[in-house]
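job 3f2a | input accepted
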Amino acid sequence: MEIVKLIFFILLIIVTPLITIFIIRILLKASHALDQINTTLEDARPQVNMFLSNLNTTLDDVNDEMGRVIEITSEAQEVLARLESGMLSAEKAMQSPAARYGGVALGLLTTSLLFGSQARRARKMIKKSGKLKKKERK
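job 3f2a | predicted structure (138 res):
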């Protein structure tokens, strides 16, 4: 049993520095990688700051435009509300008995004027055709 302990102790003495060297090597590589990341971040910081500043300006412009869009839509809603109230008043006026009788009277007047003008044209054409026949007889 003493021999096994002695062999284990010797192995421990040999392996411990090897593990330590391996861990130190890994830590050095990690340190080098972290240095490269730090350098990259330092190089990118001004560009990121400029990008964020431009993004902020763009968002401010978008907010201004959205405010204008809100104004336009609210004005359009007001116009539509006024138009709707006007249409309702016109509809009420059209439903009144006086408007109905007025519409019928206007329709009759328009029809009589239309037929009157057509009748005058027809009379003129008849007179002209009668004159033409008299001239042909002579």
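job 3f2a | Helices lie at 2-95, 97-137.
job 3f2a | closed
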